[in-house]
Design goal:
elongated, about 100 residues, 4 strands, alpha+beta, Translation Initiation Factor IF3, four-stranded mixed β-sheet
Length: about 100
Amino acid sequence: MLLLNIDYVPGKELEVLGIVKGTVVQSKNFGKDFMAGMKTLVGGEITGYTQMITEARQIATKRMVDEATELGADAIINIRFGSSSVMQGAAEVLAYGTAVKFK
């Protein structure tokens, strides 16, 4: 599956199949959440949360690709990611784009 964040595939004529998306709500365990809180006192990157968001983005992307595969897509164009805090220590990550088939 070709994944692009532009709205075309160079050299290809496209048939639009529709919007596809993948979403996940991810959280860290209490111990890591507590340590992240301690890290905010001294500053710096909170690696536990960086890893959590990276993993969530990968899961959301896979779910988006799975949905596009079910439609028979060759590529997903104009891919975007969004995130929001759902509660303390948990975030939703959304991946979405347009599924297309090559003509």
